[in-house]
Amino acid sequence: MVALADLHACEPWMSASRIAAICHRANELEGDITVLLGDYAAGMNMVTQYVHSRQWSKALATLQAPLGVHAVMGNHDWWEDRTAQKNGGMETFGHRALADVGIPVYGNRAVRLEKDGRGFWLAGLEDQLALLPGRKWGRTQMLGLDDLEGTMAQITDDAPVILLAHEPDIFPRVPERVSLTLSGHTHGGQIRFLGRSPIVPSRYGNRYAYGHIVEEERNIIVSGGLGCSIAPVRFGVPPEIVVIDLG
């Protein structure tokens, strides 16, 4: 598996041409399947120009893998879409942009795939921080649109399950039935010293900040991602394309 997370498309930090170059490198890794873990939209104001969804999705459309390219949405994809915030759900411009270039988006959905005659399930959650609070939205708190139970209910046999979830904070609720959870969102803290980050956008702090974590024989891999949010700064956690070999 090849996993890309947290592109945060914007000029000058993550241009459409840079995304295309990242996709070219991802294709060279020759994964059986490529997954996109959310946050395609810019997440900061320190930009010279925003990259339109038509541009970043066109770059992502160059990704190729025998078992396809599959995506979930991230919090910034929801937060940057005022119409989606007003509607309290539905879909974002990111959903539509990816669908328009033939990349399926998993919003609480699971599908069964096969590799060499061996089946497995790929499941994806809608974002856990999708809807912002605010009087203009009629919401007093942040609301997620994720439905873990409903997604798992779509799985009809005992084949392995791979779960895509933008934020890793869902992991304590993920059942043992799931072989592997893949997440992004944290950017590894974006600044990291001696294996720890001073600020991590997770209620669990450094517990799910970065890397391969095993708890009670359950596995999660949290990507350090590719772009930046808040400020264009990375230290101790370079941008990465994650490659996962599954036996």
Structure description:
With 247 residues, the protein is an alpha/beta fold. The chain has 6 helices and 12 strands. It has helices at 16-28, 53-60, 75-79, 82-87, 93-100, 148-152, and strands at 2-4, 10-11, 34-36, 49-50, 69-71, 109-115, 118-124, 161-164, 180-183, 211-215, 218-222, 242-243. The strands form 3 sheets. Strands 6-7-8-9-11-10 form a 6-stranded mixed sheet. A 4-stranded mixed sheet has the order 5-3-1-12, with no helix packed on it. The chain is globular. It starts with a strand and ends with a strand. The mean pLDDT is 96.
Strand percentage: 15-25%
Number of strands: 12
Residue stretches low in confidence (pLDDT < 50, at least 5 long) are none
Distance between the termini: 11 Å
- State mean pLDDT (0 to 100 scale): 96
Order of helices and strands: EEHEEHEHHHEEHEEEEE
In this structure, how is the largest beta sheet organized? Answer: 6 strands, mixed
Describe the structure concisely for a colleague.
The protein is α/β, with parallel strands linked by helices. It contains 6 helices and 12 strands. Helix 1 packs parallel to helix 2 and helix 2 packs across helix 5.
